[in-house]
Write a structure and sequence with these properties.
The chain has 198 residues and is of the alpha+beta class. It contains six helices and nine strands; from the N terminus they run αααββαββαβββββα. The chain is 37% helix and 22% strand. The longest helix is centred in the N-terminal third of the chain and has 22 residues.
């Protein structure tokens, strides 16, 4: 994972003790960390599906205006619009990946905009002007694609605006994750005690 990185270090005595036991028993810590990374990746993916934070709280819903726009709009390019939060293009969801070494496991994304969805924040769009193409359809004026032959290009000015994005945490560590990691570490410890035979 390159780019933006959010680091969460587990400082849990019971988990750290379980991981240390595996290492001292001569267990395969690389295999242990791969399994830990896989379990954490699975947990993050489930959060996108349940639309909930690591603490179990539900993510804030779309703003009414955004929800209405999504209801009225059926597709984005060739892809259907989904009512799911943080899943409009699925790019963020698909970017979540895991990595592991013999001593560490990590789950995250390399997308620049991932941080604001995790932590929330305010985006300021400064005043700007640009040329936009329009076309006539009956009595209505609509946006036109660049290649449309009978379009008219007009300058359009946009004023400054701020967009508040609520935090919808997907990375993090839940109580269920804690129990899963302890179980994984204990299983690896039992394997190490048995001489490395599962």
């Amino acid at each position: 994972m390159t780019g933006i990185r959010e680091t969460i270090t587990v400082e849990d005595k019971e988990i750290n003790a379980a991981l240390t036991r595996v290492e001292r028993a001569g267990g395969d810590t690389a295999a242990l960390m791969r399994e830990v990374a896989g379990a954490m990746l699975f947990s993050v993916q489930r959060r996108f599906e349940t639309e909930s934070a690591p603490d179990g709280s539900k993510w804030p819903a779309h703003a009414p205006r955004t929800a209405k726009a999504r209801t009225n709009r059926k597709t984005r390019g060739n892809a259907p619009i989904t009512p799911k939060l943080l899943r409009q293009t699925n790019r963020l969801y698909k970017s979540i990946s895991s990595e592991a070494t013999a001593s560490a496991a990590a789950v995250g994304t390399n997308l620049d905009y991932a941080r604001i969805h995790q932590l929330g924040g305010t985006i300021t769009q400064y005043p700007q002007s640009r040329k936009v193409k329009f076309r006539k359809v009956g009595n209505q004026t609509r946006f036109a694609k660049k290649a449309h032959k009978r379009s008219v290009e007009k300058p359009v000015a946009f004023g400054q605006r701020t967009i508040v994005i609520p935090a919808r945490p997907y990375l993090g560590f839940s109580q269920d994750d804690r129990q899963t990691l302890i179980r994984i570490a204990n299983e690896h410890f039992e394997v190490a005690l048995a001489g490395g035979q599962p």
